[in-house]
Amino acid sequence: MVSDSDKGTASVDRRTMIKTGGAAAALLAPAVAKAARGDADQAAVLKTIDANRDAAVQRLADWIKLPSIAAEKRNIDEGVAHMIALAQDAGFQTAKAIPTGGVPSVLATLDSGAKHWIGVYFMYDVKQFDPAEWSSPPLEARLVDRPGLGKVMVGRGAVNQKGPEMTFLAAVRAFKDSGRKLPVNIALIAEGEEEIASPNFPKAISHPDVLPILQKCVGVFIPSASQAMDGTSTLTLGAKGAVELQLISSGERWGRGPTKDIHSSNFARVDSPAWRLVQALDTLMKPDGHTIAVDGWYDNVLPLSAREKALIAETAKRTSEDEVKRQLGVKRWINDESWVQALERLASQPTINIQGLVAGYTGPGGKTILPHRAVAKMEFRLTPAMTKEEAIAKFNAHLKKHGFDDLEVEITGGYGPTITNEDSALVRSEKAVMERLGVAYTIIPRSAGSWPGVVFSGPPLNLPAAQWGMGHGSGAHGPDEYFLIDSANPKVMGMAEASKAYVALLYEIAKQAAIRA
Amino acid sequence: MVSDSDKGTASVDRRTMIKTGGAAAALLAPAVAKAARGDADQAAVLKTIDANRDAAVQRLADWIKLPSIAAEKRNIDEGVAHMIALAQDAGFQTAKAIPTGGVPSVLATLDSGAKHWIGVYFMYDVKQFDPAEWSSPPLEARLVDRPGLGKVMVGRGAVNQKGPEMTFLAAVRAFKDSGRKLPVNIALIAEGEEEIASPNFPKAISHPDVLPILQKCVGVFIPSASQAMDGTSTLTLGAKGAVELQLISSGERWGRGPTKDIHSSNFARVDSPAWRLVQALDTLMKPDGHTIAVDGWYDNVLPLSAREKALIAETAKRTSEDEVKRQLGVKRWINDESWVQALERLASQPTINIQGLVAGYTGPGGKTILPHRAVAKMEFRLTPAMTKEEAIAKFNAHLKKHGFDDLEVEITGGYGPTITNEDSALVRSEKAVMERLGVAYTIIPRSAGSWPGVVFSGPPLNLPAAQWGMGHGSGAHGPDEYFLIDSANPKVMGMAEASKAYVALLYEIAKQAAIRA
Predict the structure, then answer these.
(1) Which of A22, A515, B86, B357 has the least C-beta neighbours within 10 A?
(2) Closest chain B residue to A284, measured at CA
(3) Residue A412's closest chain B neighbor by CA?
(4) Is residue B25's pLDDT more than 50?
């Protein structure tokens, strides 16, 4: 979910923070060299990254060939073992499975004797795929030339998130291989159920082997290939939460209507669970079609701060509304609002979305049945300071109040919103490294997409949590997912350059954490 | 549609009109013989039916092996040619295709020089099928032993309607083969789009070669294997009409929302066609979930007559409410009404049913999309004196009044209700033959299911139109559809016996028509 939510929203909300003259990456080598000046350790590490390039690419390919898919219960044990081996190989001193009740997580630690700890979040699972849709087989991890971009690796998980994660591991391993000490200690927590909305990940976090180590951290980040084709990046200060659910109307639970699909002529004398679903759904939404009619839904929705509004106004100025509308296939925003208003809505408004409707006959044409069951696949998007528990409780109370409590609410996963303090050591470090590397970036006050960062940013950890990383890739959840290995575009970093950026980030975090967390 | 609608509704609404001592079919041979007494012609014809038995079974098998399916445009030309050949083979003097703008109909005439004409309606198309679901291949027309029932032919179209139709053709052919003259002239009109709700059949009826010949008829019937496993039959005095449609909400037509599925985070700023469909649907139905909220929908709904109420009360007395509820998987009728009230509703109330809902993601679990399109598959059931045109116009006016006229209403087929005068020569003949054959039967004032009989019973023909026929079969539209060939059950007629019943019917129609139409 991490990637799908940020592609297509973040990629169009970019703002050039630094005038780069369009040659950000061209500045990289001297910029990194400058950052490392007087630091022989860092220079040795960066050199080792180059020497290790081929092995890192091979390790990524091997990982892609082993897809762990929680929804299909595919390669669970193998995925855990592989994740542990990858961490050990990169130099982590401990690495072990953490039981969650579902697919296990993996905790790995690397204590270099530094003063501060940084947390890193991985997902080792990938989204399902249909090989028939791919131009290059999804599990072969082929290297393919993309004109104007460079050599990319095509495969399921290439960008979401094995590519960025392996890029980070290559940075860590380079410390080991060059015999240098990491400037910060690292606690790596990897989960195997991200693609099913992390139903058990909070259990991993609260595990007695995990919580104490994460509590030491100054923040947690997830590696991410955040550069667009023009080299610009984004820095998001949080994300909406998401709760996935199915709202199910059935004759069985209702005690009315049929308990199997029956001939539709019977609707003259038998109640209809499909109409009941329609009626229940319609109570949830005001006539405008987007304002949620659930009592108290907006009680804890925080208005945008002045800083958030200023950041959005800046994004609105520097991005093309027409281009975004074209990409989305949209002619008008809700209420025919302006571009700024649409961006403010995207950042600030909770939603109750219908992802899908399924009832009775769904094939071509019609079929004369009275369905016994009707399902709305839905999701809530939650904004600060809403919580998952609050949203579910209010939703259930609404159904009860309107007499629809026979409908089943099946929560399949979810988490609350992530809020990251812009003044934290983590965010200050992210900004500092991008500025030093000459990477233009946009600050997004809140991603409208979602990731389970709230397990870090919420209680009990209350840590800054963010996605960060250089490099490029695309196609998360779709066919021909890819990750850029060797860049032919001077504005965009390849895998080795992106690994070097993580080295810079780790040094910067050590420096910023020493100032203040 | 003919068969699926009457199985499961009619089969449980039976009323024993004649005390038979449970041995109706045992009386058949002597009864038929009695009917034919003093009539050498009829005796010769009946004898020929027995002689022709094997050839008729083979002809049915050959027909099943050639499935014409309008929805799949499968075997259209071949189906027309085969229908023409079958009619010619049975002794019809003329047989030709009638253009309809869609799949052609076939008109065949047999003028024996009799005083009266009877119309017969055939469908030569069949429903789609999935061979994987069948225990005997659907196009092999295998003869299979069914314990307690006898030898049945299994195949798509076996009972709906090739079996009953071939049974009737065998009766007609027996006149030719025995060199006897039919007591009535026959106009046979066969359509090839019944399973897609007869969208073009009215054009065939109004064709200048068809209309004049049908106008001569005293009525029209469709052959039907109406006997239940206990040998009882039904006599229906009409049927509800049905209109099949899809109600489609799309970003394209609306001019709001997306024109392709996009990431669901966008629902914060982009309107949702799925919620719009929900809102439009909810305006159609009153809060009770079954009363239609469309202006004027009930204006032309005729109340049940005293005779209809009496027939229903009789059915209620003689049938098991518990058994019907068990078969349907239903605990309560609408409004917790009584058995009589439920049967009255079934006969008298128009419906707007949701057959299916399809929007966005319909697979397992969820998917974070905002769908650009949402569809409700629906059907209206119409009671006298509603018309198809009236219902469609009121439905469209309703959508417009509520501001939902951007939703597309795609009518895929339909027709109004059929009303058949109980005192017509056709119905009097049906009753007389069943009474003479000792077949117990129930009179259903109105089938809740539908068939396009209105093309005959409505203007411009205004003819009595009914389904009639002895014999047994089941599984219309489902797997392992079958038709009884050789009965091992003394209460139920096999194919040859059912052919003989048609001979009796043709003689009776000649007799009754001579009294009054």
Answers:
(1) A515
(2) B275
(3) B365
(4) no
Domain segments of chain A as ranges: 2-237+418-515, 241-301+349-415
> How close is the nearest chain A Cα to the Cα of B276, in Å?
7
pLDDT in tens, B290-329: 999 999 999 999 999 999 999 999 999 988 999 999 989 9
Four-CA torsion A444, A448, A453, A458, nearest 10 degrees:
90
Using a CB-CB cut-off of 8 Å, the residues of chain B touching A1 are 368
| Residue A413 contacts residue A70 (beta carbons within 8 Å) | no
pLDDT at B15: 29
Instruction: For residue range A78-135, list pLDDT tens digits in order.
Output: 999 999 999 999 999 999 999 999 999 999 999 999 999 999 999 999 998 989 989 9
Residue whose C-alpha is closest to residue A275's, from A395, A356, A400, A360: A360
Over its C-alpha atoms, chain A yields an Rg (Å, rounded) of 24
| Residues on chain B touching A371 (C-beta within 8 angstroms) | 354-356
Q: Please provide the CATH number assigned to the domain covering B241-301+349-415.
A: 3.30.70.360
Q: How far apart are CA B388 and CA B243, in angstroms?
A: 7
Chain A CB contacts of B249 below 8 Å: none
Q: Are the beta carbons of B219 and B119 closer than 8 angstroms?
A: yes
- How far apart, in whole angstroms, are the C-alpha atoms of residue B503 and residue B513? 16
The CA–CA distances, whole Å, from B115 to A72, B183, B185, B222, B426 equal 72, 8, 8, 21, 15
Dist CA A46 CA A400 (whole Å): 60
**Cβ–Cβ pairs < 8 A, chains A and B:** 297
CA distance A348 to chain B (A): 8
Spell out which residues of chain B touch residue A406, defining contact as CB-CB under 8 Å. Answer: none
CATH numeric code, A2-237+418-515: 3.40.630.10
All residues of chain A having their beta carbon less than 8 Å from the beta carbon of residue B279 are: 282, 285, 287, 289
Report the amino acid identity of residue A497.
E
Please indicate whether, in this complex, the C-beta atoms of B377 and A366 are within 8 angstroms of each other: yes
Name the amino acid, one letter, at A419: I
Cross-chain residue pair B346–A246, CB shorter than 8 Å: no
Of B271, B289, B351, the CB nearest to A334: B271
CA triplet B451, B409, B352: central angle to 5 degrees? 50
Q: Which of A261, A257, A260, A255 is nearest to A270 (CA)?
A: A257
User: Which residues in chain A have their CB less than 8 angstroms from residue B242's CB?
Assistant: 368
Contacts of B344 (CB under 8 A, 6+ apart): B304, B309, B312
Fold classification of B2-238+419-515 (topology level): Aminopeptidase (3.40.630)
State the DSSP code for B131: G
Lookup: tokens for B285:
């139905």
Is B262–A5 a contact, with Cβ atoms under 8 angstroms apart? no
Secondary structure percentages of chain A, helix, strand, coil, to 5: 40, 25, 40
| pLDDT, tens digit, 9 for 90 and up, residues A122-149 | 999 999 898 998 999 999 999 999 999 9
How far does the CA of residue A360 sit from the closest CA of chain B (Å)?
A: 4
Q: Where are the alpha helices (DSSP H) in B68-108?
A: 76-90
Answer yes or no: do B358 and A354 touch at CB < 8 A.
no
Nearest CB to B270; choose among A328, A343, A362: A328
Closest CA to A116 of A180, A175, A171, A185: A185
**Distance in angstroms (rounded) separating the CA atoms of residues A235 and A163:** 19
ipTM, 2 dp: 0.84
Which residues from B are below 8 Å from A10, CB to CB?
Answer: none
Residues in CB range of A310: below 8 A, 6 or more apart: none
Contact A18, A440 (CB under 8 A): yes
Q: Which of A501, A505, A499, A483 is nearest to A163 (CA)?
A: A483
Token digits of residue B425: 């020569």
Cβ distance of A269 and B345 shorter than 8 Å: yes
